[in-house]
Each structure stands twice: as structure tokens, then as C-alpha cells.
Amino acid sequence: MKLGTLIFKNTYMNFSEMLGVIPPIFLLLGLFDVWVPRETIIRYMGEKSGITGIFLSILLGSAAAGPLYGAFPVAAIMMKKGAGFSNILIFLGAWSTMKIPQVLFEMSSLGTAFAITRWAVDLVGIIVMAVIIEKLISPEERSEIYRKHIEENI
């Protein structure tokens, strides 16, 4: 009986946490979708955006708040708006490992050298992995991923 009660308490707490995070994310996504033109995303974060797209992806991911499951709807909107595949991967990687509050906590509890070293390793690792993944996936496969995403969300 105690195990069942514990399971229900944990489920309730997790569900409550999600209800506190998901609505604000979807509200911001709706505003992002309406206010930011597709051409702007293509120019600054598209396939040919270069270092600018990488920088913006890292900035958006590291400045974000909320758990990782909040990053996927944002990535979906980025995909819809024409962001480059590697920039979406970099954004997801930055959201998961490079958040500014996390780095500040690490600086205060584990030391500045550790926090900066981990952040730098993550930065390089995320960019390298995104480039490798983009090279491993053919342009046709990437086009198919974008096409399926758009079809499923119409």
C-alpha cells in the first residue's frame, strides 16, 4: 500500500511540475511563431548562417529555462521556421548542458575552473557532434525529416 501511495504522490508532483512549465513555453512559442518572420530565422539560423547561427543557437539554448522536454517544442518551431539542422542540434545540446544558471551553480559549488572547463568541453563537443551528425545524414534524409515534420504539424 505504501508503494502505491508513493507512486501516486510522485506522479502528482511530476504532473504539477509539467503544468507549471508547459503552458508558459507554449505561450512563448506562439508569440515566437507569430512575431518572428521565417525569413529572419533563415537568415540568422538557416543552413548558410555559419558562425552566427551557431552563436544564436548556443545563446538561445543556454539562456533558456525549464527542463529538457521544453526544448523539443522550441526546436519544432525552429524547424518549421527554417533553422538549419545543425543549429537545431546545437540548440538542443546547449539547452541540455550549457544553461547559465547551471554554470553559476557549478562555479559556486565546484569552483570556477571546473565550471568553465566543463562549459568549454561541452561547447566544443556539441558543435563537433552537430557537424558530424549533419555530415552523416544526407541532404535527402534531412529534407525528408523537415517534410515529415511539416506534414505532421499542419
TrEMBL record:
Organism superkingdom: Bacteria
Transmembrane domains' residue ranges: 12-32, 52-72, 84-104, 116-137
Protein topology in the membrane: Multi-pass membrane protein
Pfam families xrefs: ArsP_1 (PF03773)
InterPro entries from the UniProt entry: DUF318
Primary location group: membrane
GO cellular component: plasma membrane
Annotated localization: Cell membrane
Coiled coil: none
Assigned keywords, A-Z: Cell membrane, Membrane, Transmembrane, Transmembrane helix
NADP keyword on record: no
Family: Belongs to the UPF0718 family.
Name this protein carries in UniProt: Permease
High-level lineage: Bacteria, Bacillati, Bacillota, Clostridia, Thermosediminibacterales
